[in-house]
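Shipment paperwork, digital attachment
Item: protein structure file
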Amino acid sequence: MKTYLKLSPSWTNHAASLLIASLLAAFILPTNTSRAGIYSTAGDVELKALVLAQDALVTADWYFPTLSYDVPAGVIWLQRDGVENAVWFARLATEIAQQTQSIVVAPKFRRLDKPSPSVDGDTLAKAVAELFLGDRLALNSSAAAAGYQGPLPQNFLLVGIGKGGGFATSVGGYTVDNGAAANLLGVVMLNGAAKQDTFAPSLAKLDGLGIPDYQIAGSGFGVSNGRALSTAKLLKRLHPDQFVGIQIWPGATDAEVTASVGWINDIYAGYGPTDPQFGIYGNPNDGTYIPGQLIMIDQRKAKVL
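Attachment content:
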C-alpha cells in the first residue's frame, strides 16, 4: 500500500514536525508472502518524507508479526545499508518481526548519506529521530496504510546494517536530544560502520540514559568487514571491560539472526549481558564477560568482542 507523507523542515517546532500531506497514490493491499517458511505481511509504503531543503522520496517496507492476537512488543526501525543481499535482508526483517513480536519498518533511502542533493546524513538522522516524537502521526499513518490497525507501540529499537548501523546510532543520539529516547530501548548494529567523530558523541548520549548499543561485526553484509571491525574496536574502546558484541565469520547468516533476535528479546524484557535470558553473550552464558572468547551460535563460530 502506498501513501505520501510530509515532514516539516523545522527541528524546533516538534508539534508541527509530523504533517500528513495527502493520499496521492493508488492503494494496493499488502500481500502475505512466504520467506523461509515464515509468513509475514509486507506493505510497500512510500513516504514523501523529510522535507528539509527539498523533498526526499523514501519508500519503506512494513513487516508485521503474524501472531496478531498478541500485543506487539515494540517498533523496530531497520535501516538498510543499500548494498546488502536483498533476500537475506527480507529474511532478517521477517525473522525479527516474528521472533521478537515486533513491527518492523525498513526504509529505503535513495542513498543513505544523501537522499537528495541538499540533504546529508546528519540532517537525515535528525529527521528520523523526529518521527518518534509525540503522536508519531507520520509513522502511524504509514503503518495504517500498510494494513496495521491501531496506534503503534511506544517502545522502539533502532537496528542498522553496515552504514545503517552507524546511522542508527546517530538517530539514537538525536532522540536523546529531542526527548524521544524516553521510549528508545536499544540499538543493534549488524556489521555496523560509523565515523568516529559522529559515533562517539552519539554513543555518549545513549550511555547517559543506559541505552545499550551492540555490534555484530564481520558478517560480510553491508560495508566491508574492515570498516565494521574498526567500528567494533571503537565501541570496545569506548566501553572497556564490558560486552559490546560479537564477531562472526562471513556467511554465518543464521548465527547473525539468532544473535540479534536474542539480544532484542533481552532488551525488551529488561535483561542483558550480565543477566541473559534469551541472548547469547558468552559460554557459559552466565553473565561473565570474557573478551576474545570463541563461542558457537547455530553451529557457527563467533568471537566475543
